[in-house]
Design goal:
Helix 1 packs antiparallel against helix 3. The chain contains 4 helices and no strands. It has a domain of 58 residues. By secondary structure, it is mainly alpha-helical.
């Protein structure tokens, strides 16, 4: 059987120190093998002392409700962010595909330009040879014309 302790009732308008002493006495009076002992943990008692010292009402239900509300808001924010990430991933996939397609078009155009360059280069070389040959023919024709003009004069 557990030992019974009597705790004096707090007087009206107790000081902070009296309230802290009272709650400490209550916590000490709770047997170790009880559910209530789990409530009066070292962390909880430190929190209660701080609340009382700082003129905050230690309303556990309000704190719990605020935490629940914060958690719900965080879940909503996480859901919203998940949708944003999914949407962003979809956009990235589309843009990545478009980039890949553009890269392929660019590579094809670059290869074609390279082939066209080679073809045009060889055509230019051929044209230069033709021009050189034609220049030679023109010189020969001018020489023949000169010879014909000189022969006609004589």
């Amino acid at each position: 059987m557990t030992e019974r302790r009597t705790i004096d009732k707090l007087e009206t308008d107790p000081s902070k120190a009296e309230e802290i002493a009272f709650i400490e006495e209550v916590a000490e009076s709770v047997p170790d093998n009880s559910y209530l002992k789990m409530l009066f943990t070292k962390q909880f008692m430190n929190w209660l002392r701080e609340q009382i010292r700082n003129d905050f009402y230690p309303n556990l239900y309000e704190f719990w409700q605020q935490d629940v509300s914060d958690i719900e808001n965080l879940h909503l924010e996480i859901s919203r962010l998940k949708f944003q990430v999914e949407d962003t991933n979809k956009v990235l996939a589309v843009k990545s595909k478009a980039l890949s397609d553009l890269q392929e078009v660019f590579n094809t155009a670059q290869e074609a330009a390279g082939r066209n360059y080679d073809k045009l280069y060889y055509q230019l070389e051929d044209a230069e040879k033709i021009v050189e040959n034609l220049k030679g023919e023109i010189i020969n024709l001018k020489a023949k014309l000169y010879d014909m003009m000189v022969a006609k004069e004589n």
